[in-house]
Write a structure and sequence with these properties.
This protein is of the alpha/beta class. Helix content is about 40%, strand content about 15%. The chain is built from 7 helices and 5 strands; from the N terminus they run βαβααβαβαβαα. The chain has a 5-stranded parallel beta sheet with strand order 2-1-3-4-5, with helices on both faces. It binds flavin mononucleotide.
């Protein structure tokens, strides 16, 4: 079975995008699609890194643990809010931390907003950054508009059949990318 990790990027008090991360985690587990683990940046509460991990002299144990989880994952699902048209500093902090480790990593996006556009702008900058460091970014993000009404606090969607269908499509794409990567020459 493939190993996936979900990065939940918002570290805000009262964050809403984490609802979506909880839902995706549950969807993958309930349908036995893959081994999956949540990497919650709020829980990690990392400092702002001054340098990439490979150049840090004495990295924190939780930083090493986080890096190992991303490195060993077959694919990554990034759940991110849209902040002023971009992605949050908490997410940039860990992307830059692991710079080389993103190379050839299949990555799928779940952008979230409380407005009507479902974080459509955040994908532009996030996609570019990850493309630049060699990630295999899956097209067709699972955009979540109106998150406050679309999910309750525990991550239950208001329209579960529709959300399940869209989520399955994203994860199938990610699994296809993971399969395709196996045929790539290093
Ligand atoms: C600093 C900041 C900037 C934001 N900018 C945008 C934005 O550009 N577009 C948008 O649709 N929502 C924006 N929002 C609202 C988020 O979509 C909303 O907070 C949503 O719940 C996802 O973020 P969260 O997980 O941190 O709650 C912004 C929120 C914050 C805190």
């Amino acid at each position: 079975m493939q190993k996936l990790v979900i990065i939940s990027s918002s570290i805000r008090d009262g964050r809403k995008s984490h609802r979506v991360a909880l839902y995706v985690l549950d969807f993958i587990r309930q349908n036995t699609i893959a081994d999956v683990e949540m990497l919650d940046l709020r829980e990690y509460a990392f400092p702002l890194f001054h340098e990439r991990l490979k150049y840090q002299e004495s990295p924190l144990p939780e930083v090493i643990e986080f890096a190992e989880k991303v490195r060993s994952a077959d694919g990554v699902i990034i759940v991110t809010p849209e902040y002023n048209g971009g992605y949050p500093a908490s997410l940039k902090n860990v992307i830059d931390l692991l710079t080389d480790d993103w190379s050839r990593k299949p990555v799928a996006f779940v952008p979230v907003s409380d407005g009507p556009f479902g974080g459509s702008q955040v994908v532009t900058s996030l996609q570019f950054t990850l493309w630049k460091i060699g990630a295999l970014t899956v097209p067709g993000p699972l955009r979540i508009p109106d998150v406050i009404n679309a999910f309750d606090d525990s991550g239950t969607p208001s329209d579960k059949p529709a959300m399940d269908k869209r989520t399955a499509a994203l994860i199938n794409q990610l699994l296809r990318f993971i399969e395709s990567k196996k045929n790539m020459q290093d």
